[in-house]
Inverse folding.
């Protein structure tokens, strides 16, 4: 067999030997539709996620809406109204039911949308707006005209955005990506490091959407300098009709050597032409709670001599100053003595502190201007004739960040959104220990017994991880007033999002077994209170424990150390959660049924993090995620159960097809191929030599592995991707059902070419507690609802019935007891599913008993409250509870699904 080295993409030779990979997804492909007579649907009411009417949009807004099977054709047109008046909307389908009807649709509105707190969506003809967005392509550039601004994208070179125009004037130009690296860390003693600067170079530009309301331009490339190209990037620019805003979703992939490539700065830079007098050039920064820092490059307030009240008031307001002939001559004759503050910086180096500084120019000292706790992440540079607002979402959460202005006193300034501030220590991605002598599998397994860390030399590399950031730019016609600027900062920090309420989402029959909140009985109310309690606790812990930072924000900790009153951030596999036991799913289902905006934002941040940071996107492990640990990427267990498509689908559909999430979902459809390069069971099955896989008999499990891959195939199928995804999904599911013991058959192997499992003819049992706690139950629930496969359904229901069944019941069906299984509370939802499918009241009653007993979870009698721990026992006041992330996720999913499946037995 072929021996494959680290960090290489699977070779063509191996691909040919194991069956062709699924082809890349065709954008907006529509499956062949049988004759469909739509049943129709009543109008759907929409509201803003955070409630009320937002003062500003982040350019525009895009969201998703599900529809019941058969209600709408796959190419249905939609109309949006508010108060009976039409609102311009662009609509497209993001997923189809098997009959060709629309399952999920996406919708976009721009600046022409009437401000309202509610809208109504229904089949119909969309209204026309005052502005129509247009896209013009040529061999050298792409020009997007929103009707208000024109943005020119280069197809080659380093200027990703060549210019942004408004009203004939260039507001910004030469938009480019910048990176600086050093060859040594900032924290180690010794001689200083060597530095090297890089600029993003374009490889390809694609127009993914071209209006009439929304345009999406995708740019890919690498950061280049003399003799080297690295850090691949994927940029998506979003523009909306009638809007002066440009949203940028920026993703970069780390493909360096963590021992010599230390990123000291990473950012997006624009040049801003400066016009007019220095006293008419304005700087703005957003602070905390709507606060605004406002100054001019040449200030005329606070001087020893007063230029006049009208002059001072105009400068404070950001308006053009009166003619200097109207000023006090004691000021105008001495303007040259007033310093020109040409450089400004707002740096957020921690989650709890930012600082604003300024200086007259390079070579001179910085003067501290102000500071605060958590900045909203928006800056502005311009004049009363126009300027550029520039910002970064989750600015303080993703520290160390910075907004910088240079050259404001010259003819052309530069503004930079630093995703990693050059004022911070260089990014250090090295492993946190030297291996401590864990050179063999027995030593590594022994260490696992004490720290729960699955260490293996060479596996702690960050090679192939990614990070996505969201930026906003507004080409403004004038310096904004304080209220307008604060509103823009709010839209930058929390982009407004329209959503349907839980009742409609549930009525569409999407995303498995869940139901809206129901407190109709005392028993149900008790469970609802507990669901709220565990969610609010983990949400609060994020802030109390400061789970923030560029690589960390979005994740939560795994387990708690009650002795230290601290989460086990430094104890091996007990530290960062990395989606262990489906935390992502729990949060998404909590949002679906409650409509809680905090739940959506919590899950959104987790989706961004776990999809990028906890997963490999390059090299031989592409498509695999990394098990929980002290560093997100450092554990040696690389598995599809973590890169899991089941954790990304909710965000993708609810946001109207977020393109970065779509990339991640598509990336996983060939993740079964990673079993050609890595044996996940190598430490326990005696594999000590070179791995020599047989593509026709790979060690891929029918549960944790297949469930994650099946989620990718299911999503690819319903999104209208390659039909091979459906073929492989159904072939694999049928083959598992055909095994003597179905999902618990021991000794089964996987044929990569046919996507089928096989085993010997005799019944054998191999089952573990982790089998169905990584999305398998959820994907099977959806699959069985979509297709008519009685054998698959029967075998799956058998598994669900038997997991928490008696040994006698298990022996009768499978020939052996399943042993002393763990996580029985988690599997109460499997029992509930079987109860519904078999119409068995006894099973339904058993399911609730299993939930209340709380085996390996939360029993009824435990303390569901929190205790306040005060200094000096802790560094700062914190709340403590008898909760762990694993137990919360699985209790949450179990309780949610019991309330949906067998609520009357509560």
């Amino acid at each position: 067999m072929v021996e494959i080295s680290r960090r290489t993409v699977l070779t063509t030779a191996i691909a040919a030997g194991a069956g062709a990979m699924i082809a890349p997804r065709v954008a907006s492909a529509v499956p062949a539709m049988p004759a469909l007579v739509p049943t129709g649907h009543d109008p759907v009411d929409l509201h803003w996620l955070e409630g009320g009417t937002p003062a500003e949009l982040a350019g525009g807004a895009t969201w998703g809406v599900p529809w019941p099977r058969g209600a709408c054709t796959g190419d249905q047109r939609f109309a949006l109204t508010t108060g009976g008046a039409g609102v311009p909307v662009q609509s497209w389908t993001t997923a189809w039911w098997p009959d060709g009807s629309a399952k999920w649709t996406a919708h976009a509105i721009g600046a022409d949308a009437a401000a309202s707190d509610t809208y109504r969506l229904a089949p119909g003809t969309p209204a026309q707006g005052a502005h129509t967005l247009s896209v013009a392509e040529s061999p050298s550039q792409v020009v997007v005209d929103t009707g208000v601004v024109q943005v020119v994208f280069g197809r080659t070179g380093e200027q990703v955005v060549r210019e942004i125009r408004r009203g004939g004037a260039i507001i910004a130009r030469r938009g480019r990506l910048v990176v600086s690296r050093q060859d040594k860390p900032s924290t180690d003693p010794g001689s200083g490091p060597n530095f090297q600067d890089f600029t993003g170079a374009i490889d390809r530009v694609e127009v993914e959407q071209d209006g009439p309301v929304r345009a999406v331009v995708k740019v890919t490339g690498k950061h280049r300098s003399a003799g080297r190209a690295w850090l691949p990037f994927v940029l998506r620019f979003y523009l909306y009709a009638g809007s002066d805003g440009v949203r940028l979703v920026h993703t970069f992939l780390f493909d360096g050597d963590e021992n010599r490539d230390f990123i000291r700065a990473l950012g997006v830079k624009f040049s801003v032409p400066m016009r007019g007098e220095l006293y008419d050039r304005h700087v703005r920064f957003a602070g905390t709670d709507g606060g605004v820092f406002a100054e001019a490059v040449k200030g005329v307030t606070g001087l020893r001599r007063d230029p006049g009240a009208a002059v001072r008031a105009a400068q404070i307001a950001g308006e053009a100053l009166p003619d200097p002939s109207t000023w006090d001559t004691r000021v105008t004759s001495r303007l040259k003595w007033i310093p020109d503050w040409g450089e400004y910086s707002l740096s957020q180096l921690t989650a709890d502190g930012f600082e604003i500084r300024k200086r007259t120019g390079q070579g001179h000292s910085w003067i501290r201007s102000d500071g605060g706790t958590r900045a909203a992440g928006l800056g502005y540079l311009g004049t009363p004739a126009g300027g550029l607002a520039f910002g970064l979402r989750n600015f303080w959460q993703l520290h160390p960040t910075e907004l910088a202005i240079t050259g404001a006193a010259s003819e052309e300034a530069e503004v930079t959104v630093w995703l990693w501030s050059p004022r911070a220590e260089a990014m250090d991605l090295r492993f946190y220990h030297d291996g401590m002598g864990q050179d063999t599998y027995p030593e590594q397994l022994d260490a696992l017994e004490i720290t729960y860390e699955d260490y293996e030399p060479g596996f702690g590399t960050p090679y192939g991880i990614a990070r996505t950031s969201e930026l906003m730019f507004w080409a403004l016609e004038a310096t904004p007033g304080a209220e307008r600027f604060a509103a823009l900062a709010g839209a930058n920090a929390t982009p407004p999002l329209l959503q349907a309420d839980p009742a409609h989402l549930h009525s569409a029959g999407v995303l498995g077994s869940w139901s809206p909140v129901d407190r109709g009985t005392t028993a149900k109310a008790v469970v609802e209170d507990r669901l709220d309690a565990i969610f609010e606790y983990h949400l609060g812990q994020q802030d109390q424990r400061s789970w923030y930072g560029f690589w960390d924000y979005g994740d939560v900790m795994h387990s708690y150390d009650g002795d230290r009153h601290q989460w086990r951030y430094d104890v091996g596999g007990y530290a960062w959660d990395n989606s262990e036991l489906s935390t992502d799913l729990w949060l998404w289902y909590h949002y679906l049924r409650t409509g809680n905006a905090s739940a959506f934002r919590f899950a959104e941040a987790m989706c961004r993090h776990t999809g990028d940071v906890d997963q490999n996107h390059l090299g031989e492990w592409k498509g695999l995620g990394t098990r929980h640990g002290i560093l997100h990427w450092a554990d040696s267990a690389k598995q599809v159960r973590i890169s899991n498509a089941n954790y990304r689908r909710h965000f993708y559909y609810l946001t109207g097809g977020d393109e970065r999430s779509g990339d991640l979902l598509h990336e996983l459809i060939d993740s079964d191929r990673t079993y050609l390069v890595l044996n996940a069971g190598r430490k326990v099955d005696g594999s000590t030599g070179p791995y020599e896989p047989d593509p026709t008999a790979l060690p891929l499990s029918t549960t944790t592995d297949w469930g994650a891959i099946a989620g990718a195939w299911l999503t690819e199928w319903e999104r209208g991707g390659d039909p091979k995804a459906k073929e492989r999904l159904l072939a694999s599911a049928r083959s598992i059902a055909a095994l003597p013991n179905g999902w618990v058959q021991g000794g089964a192997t996987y044929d990569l070419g046919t996507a089928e499992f096989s085993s010997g003819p005799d019944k054998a049992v191999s089952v573990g507690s982790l089998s169905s706690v990584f999305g398998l139950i959820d994907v099977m629930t959806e699959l069985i609802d979509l297709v008519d496969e009685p054998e698959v359904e029967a075998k799956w229901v058998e598994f669900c019935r038997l997991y928490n069944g008696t040994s006698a019941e298990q022996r009768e069906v499978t020939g052996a007891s399943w042993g002393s299984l763990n996580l029985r509370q988690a599997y109460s939802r499997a029992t509930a599913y079987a109860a519904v499918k078999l119409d068995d009241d006894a099973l339904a009653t058993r399911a609730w008993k299993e939930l209340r007993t709380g085996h390996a979870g939360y029993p009824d009698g435990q303390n569901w409250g929190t205790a306040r721990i005060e200094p000096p026992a802790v560094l700062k006041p914190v709340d403590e509870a008898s909760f762990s992330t694993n137990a919360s996720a699985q209790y949450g999913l179990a309780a949610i699904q019991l309330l949906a499946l067998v609520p009357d037995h509560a």
User: Anything to note?
Assistant: Confidence is low (pLDDT under 50) at residues 1-21, 23-30.
